[in-house]
Each structure stands twice: as structure tokens, then as C-alpha cells.
Amino acid sequence: MDLVSVLVCTRERPSxxxxxxxxxxxxxxxxxxxxxxxxxxDGPESFNALGDLVFDPHLRYVRAASRGAGAALQEGLQxxxxxxxxxxxxxxxxxxxxxxxxxxxxxxxxxxxxxFCSVVAAPHDPSCGYVPSYTPRQSRLxxxxxxxxxxHGISAGMAARRRAVIEIGGFDEALxxxxxxxxxxxxxxxxxxxxxxxxxxxxADVEIVHHGFRTYVEGRAHARRDWLGIGAVCSKLPRSGRVxxxxxxxxxxxxxxxxxxxxxxxxxxxxxxxxxxxGFMQGFITGLRTPIDKRTLKFATKRDVPRRPSPAVERxxxxx
Length: 320
What we know:
The strands form 2 sheets. Strands 1, 2, 3, 4, 5, 6, 8, 9 and 10 form a 9-stranded mixed beta sheet that branches. A two-stranded antiparallel ribbon has the order 7-11. It has helices at about 15-25, 45-50, 70-80, 100-110, 160-165, 185-195, 215-235, 245-265, 275-290, 310-315; strands spanning about 5-10, 35-40, 60-65, 85-90, 90-95, 110-120, 130, 140, 155-160, 200-210, 215. It contains 10 helices and 11 strands. The two termini are about 20 Å apart. Helix 7 runs parallel beside helix 9 (about 275-290) and helix 8 (about 245-265) runs antiparallel to helix 9.
């Protein structure tokens, strides 16, 4: 069995990080793996919380100067030695055998560049808030961007073929929490993989538990942030040259952003979700105005400006 790389990107969540790492390391996976933690925290709290975990031979801890989920995943991709890369959010908890099951599903579907598992909500009081989750009714192989209108996997539980991700230029550093466009990194990597000819598999029978509880007040505050990222990701699709890809931004905006407040108005209720419309439009327009790499469909960043790189930057350039 080849080595598997497990990536965990974290920032300022020491307790949650330790819970996830213990779930990944105990009991020990039955396949060869490395566990890479990319820590973007400002202080040493996350590292200090690891305790005896720092001595685990499978663990590689990296302090990152970058900011944003996309940049952290890109750095992890450069460090990973495995052909299959498994990713988990730092506020998740993996059941026994989760790594093995993600690898198994990936191997069972050789045309899939990405695999998303079910993300189930940890026990919580629904009267106080919610936990973001994604639980497909059944497993399915997604073959086109248009097919994602019926659901999107989320990166809280994801596996990827390193070859597929390298082929499309890696993760977009302008996307994800903490980045310029603070959401949509998981949608983006799926869209670009599909546009490049890879498939995406959603495994309904493999689960990871998500502890990311949000109050409804916090949820409203996050809505515009999330839809800003979604709009930015959707702005790439008209620039891909694929006519069928246009179905996604039209569907997302019409059904999930515009329709809910319209229904409220028809039923003489105060319209809800207006922040989705504002966020999507702002992200979409800003995305259209942002330079993009035509081959990889990644937003241009400061690192993409031609210049003589320093030795530190050169060491971060992956070998494909």
C-alpha cells in the first residue's frame, strides 16, 4: 500500500485541532500515512496544545506564514508525499477507519480526481443554532459541472488524487476562509477538476462528524461572507468557455439566493436572505474583474507577478 497524506489546515482552534488529531491517530490507521498539520495561527497556542502528539512519528507540524484555506491547502499539497491526499477540517472528528475508507473509495473510482464524504452534524441544540453539513441521499459519480446543481460536497471531508490537483494548478490561494474571497475553495477545486475532464465522487456511506456549531446570529453574519466566495467561484465558469457551465451560476443565484426572499414577499413576510444576493453579486462582479490564469482558472495572486523569487519562495514551488 502506497503512502497516504492527510492534510489538516488550522488557525486559532487548539482544542478542536487536538480532538481531530486524536481521532485520526487513535486507533492507528492500518495503512501507511503521514499527517501534515499546516498551522496559520498567530500565536503558539495550537502547537502547545498538541502535548505528546508532537512525538507521534506520523505527525508533521508546519507553521505557515500564509493566510487563507486555499493557501494552506496549497502548502500542504507541496509537502505531501502521497498520491492520495485526504483532507479534514480542524473542527471535525473522524470515526475509526475513516482514512482507510476515503482511500478505498478513491481507489474504487479511478476517474475521480476528488472524493467528498458525508459530513454529519455533531449533536447540538437546533433551537440555538446549526452545524453545516452535507449528506447526499446516495453515492454518486459527478461527471459534469452542471450536475453539481443537485448538490456540492464540502471540504470538511475530502480526498484528492495529487496528480489531478497538480494537473489543474493546485488549490486557488485567493479562496477560502481567511483569503480574499473567504469561501468556496471546495467548490472551486471540484469545478476545475470537472472542467479538466476528471470526475467527482460523493460517498454517502463514509462519514465524518462536524463540530462547527454556529448560532443563528453567527450564521447570518457568515452568509454574506460565504456567498461572496460562491459568487467569485461562479464568476470563473463563464470564463471557462464551456456553455453548459453557465447553468451553475444561474441555478445557484436563482434558486438559493433570489428565490427565498421572493417567496417571502409573495407570502407577505419580511424577506430573508438578502445578504446572499448582495454577497453573490459582489463576489461575482469582483471575480469577473480579477485577473485569472486561463489554463488553470486560478485567480492571480501577488505570487503570480513575474519577479525573481527569494530562496524561501523557491523551496515552496512543487515538483509536478
